[in-house]
């Protein structure tokens, strides 16, 4: 994903700073965070995903600059919405 982002941003003539780190162990503030969230039993199980999503949502919400946005890809949409609602984080549909 990082390599494709480098190619796409270069072709679009956009200067971006890409970071490939474990967000749960990372500090900083960003305008945009994009993540392909783990999902399904091939990665882990629903209970483990629930724990990970809760930690991720708490962390990502504290790392966004004012008017920052998080773009999250997952098939666990109901889990993601529940975690966001439970943590009272703004969700744009």
Biggest sheet character: 2 strands, parallel
Low-confidence stretches: none
- Number of helical stretches of at least 4 residues: 3
Per DSSP E runs of 2 or more residues, the count of β-strands stands at 2
Distance from first to last alpha carbon: 24 Å
Q: Helical content, roughly?
A: 40-55%
Relative strand content:
15-25%
The ordered string of helix (H) and strand (E) elements is HEHEH
Cα gyration radius (Å): 14 Å
**What structural class should be given to the helix and strand makeup?**
alpha+beta
Please list the strands of the largest sheet in the order they lie side by side. Answer: 1-2
Shape: globular
Please tell me the overall pLDDT: 83
Description:
It is built from 3 helices and 2 strands, in the order αβαβα. Helix 2 (46-63) packs across helix 3 (77-86). The chain has a two-stranded parallel sheet. The longest helix has 18 residues, at 46-63. The protein is globular, with a radius of gyration of 14 Å. It is 41% helix and 18% strand. It is of the alpha+beta class. 5% of the residues are buried.
Name a few traits of the molecule.
single chain; two-stranded parallel sheet; 93 residues
């Amino acid at each position: 994903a990082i390599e494709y982002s480098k190619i796409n941003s270069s072709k679009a003539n956009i200067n971006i700073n890409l970071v490939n780190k474990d967000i749960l162990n990372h500090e900083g503030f960003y305008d945009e965070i994009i993540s392909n969230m783990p999902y399904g039993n091939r990665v882990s199980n629903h209970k483990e995903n629930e724990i990970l999503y809760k930690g991720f949502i708490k962390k990502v919400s504290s790392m966004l600059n004012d008017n920052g946005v998080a773009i999250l890809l997952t098939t666990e949409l109901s889990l993601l919405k529940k975690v966001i609602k439970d943590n009272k984080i703004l969700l744009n549909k």
